[in-house]
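Ticket #258: bound-state structure for 2-oxoglutaric acid.
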Amino acid sequence: MSDLRKQYDEKGYVIVRNAVDADLAQETAEHVHWLTARNPGVRPERLMHDMLVTDPFMHRLVGDERLVDIVEIFLGPNIAMWAAHYIAKPPRHGQKVLWHQDGCLWPLEPVEVTTIWLAATASTRENGCLRVLPGTQDIHLLSRKEQIAADDGNNVLGTTVHPSLIDESDIVDLELQPGDVSVHNPRIIHGSEANTSDGWRIGLTLRYIPTSTRVNRENHPAILVRGAPDAGNSNEYAGRPKYDPARHMPFSGKEDWD
Ligand SMILES: O=C(O)CCC(=O)C(=O)O
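RESOLUTION: The complex was predicted; output attached.
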């Protein structure tokens, strides 16, 4: 496990193969299709935290011991997940994610946070996998002025970084199979291409923090996944949701959420 930390510190990212089993990855993909069918006005690249934070399957998934054990290597024993986001790219017209740095976009004090990106389907060069620029985690957190608005309606974030920060010869494509995860640093510059393939590319990006990090956004509960809240800040935590067949996707183990 310390090898994970070593690579993460040197390169700004690390891959963990088979972090969860194929059945859970499959259920995660089904969750996206379930949500998409119920929210036809929302692009599947934008199934965001507010839609997920009261969902029992999401609580089951983000608290999975196998994921939280990985996160603990980077953040220590008191852990919350403050932002979940399915970036699910449909076949042939899945949107790209322009080059960006995560940490400069977030209301965290301090910006101590680690992202787990879970592959629910294969994620490949052909279908628009996550790509990173190793080493860029050593740059500073970019200010608002250093970001460039790019709101053409055709990309997921509407913002990007200056092209001078991108050296294309350094790009590493993080190709994953269902159940693999990549872990990335909040300062590393990363993005992804559009999905022009015939299949879905479904990823779930999960932002974990030590509970000592303050989430400075109102009405934005996090999910406590291990250890204890920190008395030094007023983070809000979502309660454990009850599974309701009228409102939630059925999932393996749902009886534990009655
Ligand atoms: O899923 C993608 O293509 C991009 C993900 C990303 O930017 C992130 O997880 O921070």
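RESOLUTION NOTES: The chain has a mean pLDDT of 96.
TICKET STATUS: resolved
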